Amino acid sequence: DNLKALFRPMAMMIPDYALVAEVMLFSEGFETSKDLSRKMVKLYKLSSEQLSQQDHYDFGMRALKSVLVMAGSLKRGAPDDDEEVVLIRAMRDSNLPKFLLEDAELFEAIVQDLFPGVFVAEAEYGDLAQAVIASLEEAKLQNVPKFVVKVIQLFETFNVRFGVMAVGPTGGGKTTCYQMLKAALSRLRAANSKNVEYQTVHTFVLNPKCIKMGELYGEYNLMTNEWTDGLGSTLIRNAVADTAQDKKWIVFDGPVDAIWIENMNTVLDDNKKL
User: Fold this and answer.
1) C-alpha separations of 45 from 24, 60, 221 in Å
2) Lesser CB count within 10 Å: N end or C end of the chain?
3) Burial class (CB in 10 A: 0-12, 13-18, 19+), 153
4) Do 36 and 84 form a contact (C-beta atoms < 8 A)?
């Protein structure tokens, strides 16, 4: 009780996901947004209950919003397509890459139950797949079909989010995955591909655990009242200042812990500020 006296009670409420999804779908140009929003929220609720519990699974508001934004861009790209098909494609593209094999099958089954009889054709990535295979052969690596799919899924995830985290065991192929995507996109741009999403990629790799937080993000000197940029913030500033079409990936290659990743929260959400 004496500890309770030091705090004040606060009322908090869970946002109405269905209403938020409905309004966002309407704003993105969907006509049947009422039914679609309910089905989508139901899908996320069932997924969070029935899929295995993994640290990197996220079925919260942030994940919901990214799917809705992606659905909107797909809708504008193909306005005549069935709205259910567009939404299913958005949900698949943003969720399947992070699921374990057995969870991916369960997710597909839940989608079939909620959208019975709806057939969704696989997206065509012929040029990109060929470029990935050529990049693998050039690097003298084996052409494993599942790995090619994983590289394409990384590309799809980049289309939804501007910040991506690759998780997995040591030697699982995380570094090779992004390097092969980089090589494939650069190869397609060199061949003057008509798709504007295929641009030359530049990577800036650093280990966030090898330097102090002040050296990584920058710090304020209390003695001189001067701000000094860190390594990460300098790289991001330089990338933003460059007006070329080329893509710049700043890769934080190291173990994830709360000390350095906490500061990336506001960078990777809609604030986009450090």
Assistant:
1) 18, 9, 47
2) N
3) middle
4) yes
Q: Each residue of 235-249: pLDDT tens digit? A: 999 998 999 999 999
| CA neighbor of 135 nearest in space, from 195, 198, 177, 192 | 177
Closest CA to 150 of 120, 180, 121: 180
Quickly tell me which residue has 């494939």 as its tokens.
184
The two tokens of residue 133 are 């295979």
Residues 6+ apart with CB under 8 A from 212: none
Q: How far is it, in rounded angstroms, from Cα 132 to Cα 184?
A: 5
Query: 125 pLDDT band (50/70/90 cuts)?
Result: confident
168: left (phi over 0), alpha (psi -120 to 50) or beta: left
Residue 134 to residue 183: CA distance in whole angstroms: 9
The confidence score (pLDDT) of residue 1 equals 72
Q: Which long-range contacts (CB under 8 A, 24 or more apart) does 255-261 make?
A: 255/209, 256/165, 256/167, 257/209, 259/213, 260/208, 260/209, 260/213, 260/216
Q: What is the pLDDT of residues 195-225, one digit of tens each?
A: 889 999 999 999 999 999 999 999 998 899 8
pTM of the model: 0.86
Q: Which residues does 205 contact at the CB level (< 8 Å), separation at least 6?
A: 251, 253
The residues, ordered by sequence, that sit 6+ positions from 82 with a Cβ below 8 Å of its Cβ are 118
Whether the Cβ atoms of residue 129 and residue 184 lie closer than 8 Å to each other: no
Residues with Cβ < 8 Å from 149, sequence gap 6 or more? Answer: none
Q: Which ranges of the chain does DSSP label H, i.e. alpha helix?
A: 17-27, 33-50, 61-77, 83-95, 101-114, 126-138, 145-160, 174-190, 213-217, 231-241, 258-261, 265-268
Nearest residue to 73 via CA among 62, 61, 96, 89:
89
